[in-house]
DNA sequence: GGGGGCCTACCGAACGTTCGGTTGCGTTGA
DNA sequence: TCAACGCAACCGAACGTTCGGTAGGCCCCC
């Protein structure tokens, strides 16, 4: 008897997104053809267009949903947290964790902006979402510097350095590798707080269960 | 009267490389056609093939020369430098500086490995060159940890974090931006040494004139 | 006069996308 | 109860365009 949750992966739309994020992350958007995608989900190239209006719209959908998930999760995580060093620690841990847990989606989010037609609605929208996310970092660093708890030569410089460190995780992290996700996050938080000369780090660690689990992120590497 | 250095940019090979690195960095290798490249250097697509054996060979050439330049410059910079913290500082400053000064070439080097046919001679060669470069980092961190001057939870983790910080520079640095190249390098060195808990940083700063100037790197942004 | 440098013209293949058609399931009306 | 209908899901074939690459010839300079 079948006790499982019905037809989980019969939803073609989800399977297409899943294959798309895998191929876009591995080969890049431009090097991935609709036929590649169709083969991966056992459809013909024409069949894809029943579920997707265009190749670029598919990319835009993935990027939009990814950014919204990140922004929402970040807002939930930071909710009520006051100390700038706590906020920065949460930002570092969560950005690192999402890049480790959803490396394919984040690689597409971080690297395929240039594949959206410049000036298109989708392109502008993704830029706005990215800015909205980065504002969390800007505010945390500005608050910390304003309160004198961070001593930092250049807020923008520090932010870019730390964000690069976190986003780079999607390029090398493997769940079965040498370090656990918790170790990576802890180490990166330590580096980040040292970078802004924050005094000994305190209090709560990030509740990673608040992070989004993108339903289309393939489970494998 | 023309007092300039003769026919600098009449060398078609160089102009092609210059345009290629610009287009590959901006649009990606897969999204750049031979015809795009030809238009950029005022040739026809067929004319390109008089100077280049294939599109992929052109990419491989750029990546190979870029990596060799980086490796050679790093060896020169580190020559005779003993202290692990000095070596690490030089590695951080030089990797940051080359990504700031040659953002297009480094973006291609860092991001287009996947565009080389897997298993091809060129692909394997570039991987070997990248490993050869990273060994400089591995040795510096191992030496520092071995001598007890670095206190670091995980050498690989620290290396990846710091290298991501440095390579990220090519994505945002602008010569006319808020911070000078020297400021960026100094700040990143400070962050890096704090990351490995090195005691107060000492001695020589990097002689950036030892870094390679890729002749094909376009001067503009 | 011969070769480097570049052209016009073209090839076969692959591209994103569209179109007309078929299948099969769920709902409806008599 | 069952024919009739609607519609989501998909396919095979083709559209026009662009792709990486090639063949052969023209021109200019040594």
UniProtKB/TrEMBL annotation, chains A, B:
In terms of superkingdom, the source organism counts as: Bacteria
Q: Where is the HTH tetR-type domain?
A: 10-70
Whether 4Fe-4S counts among this entry's keywords is no
- Establish whether keyword DNA-binding is in the entry: yes
Tell me the DNA-binding residue spans: 33-52
* Keyword entries, A-Z: DNA-binding
Gene3D superfamilies noted in UniProt: Tetracycline Repressor, domain 2
Q: Which terms in the Gene Ontology molecular function aspect does this entry carry?
A: DNA-binding transcription factor activity; transcription cis-regulatory region binding
Which InterPro entries does its entry note?
DNA-bd_HTH_TetR-type_CS, Homeodomain-like_sf, HTH-type_TetR-like_transc_reg, HTH_TetR, KstR2_TetR_C, Tet_transcr_reg_TetR-rel_C_sf
User: Which PANTHER family does this entry report, sorted A to Z?
Assistant: HTH-TYPE TRANSCRIPTIONAL REGULATOR RUTR, HTH-TYPE TRANSCRIPTIONAL REPRESSOR BDCR
**What protein is this chain from?**
TetR family transcriptional regulator
Q: Which organism is it from?
A: Nonomuraea glycinis
Upper classification of the source organism reads: Bacteria, Bacillati, Actinomycetota, Actinomycetes, Streptosporangiales
């Amino acid at each position: 008897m079948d006790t499982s949750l019905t037809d989980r992966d019969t939803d073609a739309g989800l399977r297409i997104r899943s294959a798309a994020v895998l191929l876009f992350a591995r080969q890049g958007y431009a090097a991935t053809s609709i036929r590649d995608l169709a083969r991966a989900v056992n459809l013909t190239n024409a069949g894809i267009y029943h579920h997707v209006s265009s190749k670029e719209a598919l990319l835009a959908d993935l990027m939009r949903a990814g950014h919204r998930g990140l922004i929402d999760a970040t807002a939930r995580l930071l909710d009520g947290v006051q100390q700038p060093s706590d906020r920065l620690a949460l930002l570092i841990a969560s950005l690192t964790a999402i890049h480790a847990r959803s490396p394919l989606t984040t690689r597409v989010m971080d690297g395929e902006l240039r594949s959206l037609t410049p000036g298109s609605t989708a392109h502008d929208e993704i830029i706005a979402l990215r800015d909205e996310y980065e504002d969390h970092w800007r505010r945390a660093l500005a608050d910390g510097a304003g309160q004198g708890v961070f001593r930092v030569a250049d807020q923008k410089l520090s932010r870019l350095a730390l964000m690069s460190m976190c986003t780079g995780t999607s390029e090398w992290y493997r769940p079965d590798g040498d370090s656990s996700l918790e170790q990576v996050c802890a180490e990166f938080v330590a580096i980040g707080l040292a970078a802004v000369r924050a005094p000994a780090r305190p209090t709560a660690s990030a509740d990673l269960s608040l992070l989004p689990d993108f339903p289309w992120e393939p489970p494998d590497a």
